[in-house]
What we know:
36% helix; flagellum; Flagellar motor protein MotB; Bact_OuterMem_StrucFunc; CATH 3.30.1330.60; 7 helices; two-stranded antiparallel ribbon; alpha+beta
Amino acid sequence: MEKLSPHQNIVIRRYKKVKHEEHGGAWKVAMADFALAMMALFLVLWVINSSNEQEREAISGYFQDPKAFEDGKLVPSKYVIDLGGSPTTSDNIAVSESIDPEKILQADEIESLADAIEQRRMQEMQAKIQAMITASPTLSPFKNQLLLDLTTEGLRLQIVDQTNRPMFDPGSAQLKYYSEDILWELAPMLSGLDHRLQITGHTDSSGIANQRDEDDVNWGLSSLRADSARRALMEAGVPKSQIAQVIGMGDTAPLRPDDPAASVNRRISITMLNKEFDEGVRGRSGGNNGVDVEFVNDGAPEDDPRTPTVNRTGTLLEELQRQRNREDNPYDNPPNADEVFW
């Protein structure tokens, strides 16, 4: 028997590596398409689940006709998707080339919207003042004499007289102590507003017996009473810049036209002016109208009555002063002691 070697032979097999063709990144594109398709599927499922039948019809119509054309012109598509908060679906109307929709919006709708917003603010302010009157220990006893209403000028607060509780003594412009308390209580609230104030005085139709219309004292008395209310408000903190105008109306605007002598016709009204009326008041200023006023002597003779006549003997002014100093002058005669007027 043949004797085997103690060492085993080692056989090494070498395999030749064959270089294969590169596969590239085509699978990445396929993967991206698949992911995008899944996202689109999830989006479609979400839209279907969160929309109603009408919205789904609008979405379908939009993809069918995203841009609408009529007679060769681009017009708004009738398939407008409205999911809340977007403009409402409009009719398929062609855009006019001669009218700018933005200008129409600015001229009409924006102005109307601004007026509506200010009206809403006035209503909220009315409710706030009414609540303050009810809650105030000073104002609540007089709530029947405090009237709030909205006018074309703004929010008006009227303080009216009562037979047993007038704001002023007859024929006087001196505020009663409780009338002054009312104005002092209202002043902090009024001074905190952005609106300027119009203060108007009113009287009833009472007056001096047998007086001429041109001698009616109610005009001056209503003006003095309005100014007394203005003074009390300013003493309580209302700034001068907030006072737009102080007016005396006499007995021309009674609260009860059917009874012009009623006590409620004697009142003070404080109006918080709206923007439109306040601009009209500001427009009365002579410095903002673009008109230059120039005083020029046009060469009139010295004795021309149109020439200013001051401190000259024999002038028109001297004649007027002489007539004023006559004993039978009807303009400055004081009223008789038994005459009673408001």
